[in-house]
Amino acid sequence: KNEVEQSPQNLTAQEGEFITINCSYSVGISALHWLQQHPGGGIVSLFMLSSGKKKHGRLIATINIQEKHSSLHITASHPRDSAVYICAVMGAQKLVFGQGTRLTINP
Amino acid sequence: ETGVTQTPRHLVMGMTNKKSLKCEQHLGHNAMYWYKQSAKKPLELMFVYSLEERVENNSVPSRFSPECPNSSHLFLHLHTLQPEDSALYLCASSQSYRTQDEQYFGPGTRLTVT
Question: S-S: A17 plus which of A13, A48, A63, B50, CB 3.0-4.6 Å?
Fold first, then answer.
């Protein structure tokens, strides 16, 4: 079993829908990252959080340390949000990555 | 522009070739990382350099040899690779080698070993 599990692995939705991607982890962490990877391969950091909730535009990330769970929400989804979203947790001095969630938003 | 550049973006090499991947960061960061991303697998950390010293080597085969001549540049020297080494190789940097520092990624080098 991976230390970081994401669900769903693949998600297809229509433009405008509310999107939720989940991340569960089994190790103690100091921080959790949400990353976005576009088809060309480049990775962009969306959020880094260790407690509570953060919001940036249409993106919201939450974390529950006690339950070892984080969610990434996208409101009013758009085709340009289509990408792979990766959860990564900072354990003992290194990032451990989930397998990613491939999101496709259809017009 | 992420501030982290990688060259080449694509590389095809035979198993007997020797090649190098280059990473450069323009962010004034002190830590640099090499990651490997194989198809349908999570990102795997390969090497970490902090202030030009290697601080982590995650059981990477010796056919991969990193070099960090200064805090802005990171190389990955490749020799006698295997087809299973075909993957996307990503470089990243962060302000320091600390758990809370955000990492900035380059666009990656897509490597194919024939």
Answer: A13
* Closest chain A C-alpha to B68 CA, distance in angstroms: 19
- Measured between CB atoms, does B103 come within 8 Å of chain A? yes
Residues A26-49 have pLDDT tens digits of: 988 888 999 999 887 788 889 999
DSSP chain A: --SEEEE-SEEEEETT--EEEEEEE-S--SEEEEEEE-TT--EEEEEEESSEEEEETTEEEEEETTTTEEEEEESS--GGG-EEEEEEEE-SSSEEE---EEEEEE-
Q: Flag whether pLDDT at B69 surpasses 60.
A: yes
Which tokens in the block code for residue B22? Answer: 């280059």
A30: chain B residues, CB-CB within 8 Å = 99-100
Whether the Cβ atoms of residue A63 and residue A56 lie closer than 8 Å to each other: no
